[in-house]
């Protein structure tokens, strides 16, 4: 079976900047993105790449959405300011997992140029631009050339990582193996991810005694998530694990789940507010008897997750809360609070803060007895704690020339 395509318009934009055009007379562009800004300066060298969004005539805000198949979608949002107030343009640029970093950078830069052309058209800068359009002849493409997907939306990845380092008094060797299988469609998402981790550590003490630590973890996670509507999803999750660190010979977990999104799922690149609930069954066989005098047990556990993410021109904010407990003993519970913000306060000044706090009362797999010296020094097994906290914050202030578009990477 063959498909006939209508004529395709291919166009390229070439901007010719006169030698006498100084930096102050160019269009000012402010770009907020996770992208190769060095390449952007080199290729889009007919504008000023502004340091502050308030003084720019065009603000470009790019949000990156990471796909389960390893690809990305760049969500581009152009907004005009000052004399270009009211002009806006939004579109998406998809890239695949098989593209190299350079190919991704070049594709994104090309699409930025095309989007910027519309803002140049209504200004005096239009006289500097030349647009060439070629009409391709009608062509017929066979299905094997890409009109059908023989993999039926499945993406597979396998990996292996080996790392070793050695010093006079300590050494470490690590091995990580893994496999990933993902199938993603608008209606269904299926994932399967088995992993293996091995680590050996040695430390030589002052008296010449050598402490040796071994850690071995194996786990496999699988999930199936079904889209019900623009706001509802249901899923089924399962996992199997074996961990010397967690004192588990063999453990399995099975849980159905349901999620509600207060915003339409299509708005995820810029804002999302979700509530998810899981109720599952767990079976654990322990390596050593636990602090609760268990060598094996079955239990039911429920978890509620609430997450808010905002990605706007003024910055990014994330806040999340997760709470869970055993159904047969509510005193065995855990509450997690997480937050992160990177906000532009005023011209050139931005503030970032992040942190988390966990109340931990559910370390049911801890082995009985005191932790050994090896456990403490080498992190061989988890240690008893009733909380965990971290905090980080910082300020960044950028000032100086708004019109320095030079790229120089020497030394």
Describe the structure.
This protein is mainly beta and 411 residues long. It has 2 domains: 8-135, Rossmann fold, CATH 3.40.50; 154-397, Porin. Helices cover 8% and strands 55% of the residues. The protein is built from 3 helices and 21 strands. The chain has helices at residues 37-43, 101-121, 373-378; strands at residues 2-4, 9-15, 27-32, 47-49, 58-66, 72-80, 88-95, 129-135, 140-142, 154-166, 170-184, 188-204, 210-227, 232-243, 248-261, 271-286, 296-312, 315-326, 333-346, 349-360, 387-397. Strand 19 (333-346) and strand 20 (349-360) form a beta hairpin. Mean pLDDT is 82; it is low at 1-12, 14-21 and 137-146.
CATH architecture of the largest domain: Beta Barrel
The top-level CATH class of the largest domain is: Mainly Beta
What structural class do the secondary elements suggest?
mainly beta
Largest sheet: 12 strands, antiparallel
Outline? globular
Count the domains.
Answer: 2
Backbone CA Rg:
27 Å
Ends distance: 57 Å
Strand content: over 45%
**Share in helix:** under 10%
User: Please, how many helices?
Assistant: 3
Q: How are the strands of the biggest sheet laid out side by side?
A: 10-11-12-13-14-15-16-17-18-19-20-21
User: Secondary-structure element sequence?
Assistant: EEEHEEEEHEEEEEEEEEEEEEHE
Low-pLDDT stretches: 1-12, 14-21, 137-146
Question: Per CATH, what is the topology of the largest domain?
Answer: Porin
Q: Please provide the count of β strands.
A: 21
What is the mean predicted local confidence, pLDDT? 82
């Amino acid at each position: 079976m063959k498909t006939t395509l209508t004529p395709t318009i291919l166009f390229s934009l070439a901007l010719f900047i006169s030698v006498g055009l100084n930096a102050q007379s160019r269009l000012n562009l402010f770009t907020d993105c996770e992208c190769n800004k060095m390449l952007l300066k080199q290729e889009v060298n007919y504008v000023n790449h502004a340091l502050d969004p308030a003084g720019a005539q065009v603000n470009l805000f790019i949000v990156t959405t990471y796909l389960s198949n390893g690809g990305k979608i760049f969500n581009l949002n152009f907004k005009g300011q000052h004399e270009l107030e009211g002009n806006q343009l939004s579109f998406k640029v998809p890239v695949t997992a098989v593209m190299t970093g350079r190919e991704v950078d070049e594709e994104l830069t090309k699409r930025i140029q095309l989007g910027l052309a519309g803002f140049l058209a209504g200004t005096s800068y239009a006289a500097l631009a030349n647009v060439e359009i070629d009409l391709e002849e009608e062509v017929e493409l066979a299905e094997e050339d890409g009109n059908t997907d023989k993999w039926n939306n499945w993406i597979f990845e396998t990996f292996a990582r080996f790392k070793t380092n050695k010093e006079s008094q300590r050494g470490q060797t690590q091995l990580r193996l893994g496999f990933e299988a993902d199938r993603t469609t608008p209606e269904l998402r299926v994932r399967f991810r088995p992993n293996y981790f091995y680590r050996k550590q040695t430390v030589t003490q002052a008296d010449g005694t050598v402490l040796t630590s071994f850690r071995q973890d194996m786990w496999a996670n699988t999930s199936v998530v079904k889209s019900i509507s623009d706001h509802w999803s249901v899923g089924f999750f399962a996992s199997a694990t074996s961990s010397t660190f967690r004192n588990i010979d063999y453990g399995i977990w099975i849980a159905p789940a349901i999620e509600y999104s207060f915003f339409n799922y299509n708005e995820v690149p810029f804002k999302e507010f979700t509530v998810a609930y899981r109720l599952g069954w767990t079976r654990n066989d322990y390596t050593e008897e636990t602090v609760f005098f268990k060598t094996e047990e079955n239990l039911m556990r429920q978890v509620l997750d609430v997450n808010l993410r905002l990605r706007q021109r003024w910055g990014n904010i994330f806040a999340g809360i997760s709470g869970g407990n055993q159904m047969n003993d509510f005193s065995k519970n855990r509450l997690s609070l997480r937050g992160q913000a990177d906000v532009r306060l005023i011209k050139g000044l931005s503030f970032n803060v992040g942190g988390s706090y966990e109340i931990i009362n559910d370390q049911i797999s801890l082995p009985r007895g005191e932790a050994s010296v090896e456990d403490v020094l080498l992190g061989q097994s988890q240690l008893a704690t009733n909380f965990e906290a971290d905090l980080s914050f910082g300020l960044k202030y950028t000032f100086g020339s708004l019109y320095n578009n030079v790229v120089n990477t020497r030394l």
